[in-house]
Model the fold of this input.
Amino acid sequence: MSSTVHHIRGPQNPLDRLGRPLHDLRISVMDRCNFRCPYCMPKEQFHEHYRFLKSQERLSFEEIVRLAGLFASLGVRKLRLTGGEPLLRTNLADLVGDLTDVPGIDDIALTTNGVLLGQHAVDLHANGLKRVTVSLDTLDREVFTRMSGGFGALEQVLAGIEAAIAAGLTPVKINAVVERGLNDHTALDLVERFRGSPVIVRFIEFMDVGNRNQWRPDLVVPSRELAARIHERWPMRPISENYKGEVAQRWRFDDGGGEVGFISSVSQPFCGACSRARLSSEGKFYTCLFATHGLDLRAPLRAGTSDADILQLIRGVWHGRTDRYSELREQLRHDLYSFGCRAPPGHGRCQRQEADQADGHGRSAGALPAGRRGGAA
Ligand code: SAM
Ligand code: SF4
Ligand code: SF4
Done:
């Protein structure tokens, strides 16, 4: 199947140094979260005195919409609203409505932990949201409590999923991060619960996002292993991707029970087709989930810089993009922890952590939690 990306690529649309177009933009609309998942925003670090952004430090809806328009003119067709927890942002449905009017944008999605979805699903859909992804790692109450940092309520998340289905935000996708020894034994329960429903469960390999999430390679359950376990119970076969660059590998059950997906960022990296950029809540433009530096777009926006000049900035960064962290993970982690850090990866503190804490905002290399930049690689 030919790439959708190629159909929409015009002469103005930049390619990066590896020939990849800019097609998806993940917009973090809120740095705060009402969960403290240890793999993303561990509560030891994101404690009650942690300095999150002040509201005027976050991009306004107007600024987000303006940037979305500029990105769309460079080839972005798909927006995903994320966070932190995006539904903590007041009047998020209004932003969705404004974004649907941006010429060129033909798909708007949302990733949420689901707790507030029951309250907002109808409004979001009415304002033009097409799809929603709900993060739900397990149905086991005790494991859920651990994996949400003790803040989440499983019933509310399940009610949020039901509300999304009722509102027509289908198919609802579920993202489940799998960590060996923590929730991998509950993975089949998730599949069983949602087989044959308008919900697609996707398993995500635990990633080393940030350097404080206690990541170790042996805690990753490779998708291949998990797929084999599921296949043993409900035979299934791989099916083709919906579009070029889709992050999940899809498998369909032989008995008509629907499909499951696997996001194998660690064991089978997919940087080669990565056309995703990220905009953080404070307006930094990142070209990779693991990027060390982001380009500040808020300053030029607030300084009255013209669209043409901002476009030039964005184009310049994308032209120079070489990111492929997941493909180079082993080497990069080796280099990172060989220089000036005595602690092994995932353990204790290193100089980068110190520097980051001094900065006070989680902005330095590799220390940015997924919540700040919004999710899966
Ligand atoms: N709060 C929302 C949520 O949880 O859906 C949106 C933001 S969250 C950062 C986006 C996605 O990133 C979630 O599906 C989450 O599970 C995933 N994620 C966060 N940290 C991760 C990690 N270390 N490894 C794999 N996935 C991660
Ligand atoms: Fe919050 Fe989502 Fe990160 Fe969990 S994964 S801490 S819900 S931002
Ligand atoms: Fe894209 Fe970076 Fe993830 Fe590779 S590691 S798939 S370049 S976001």
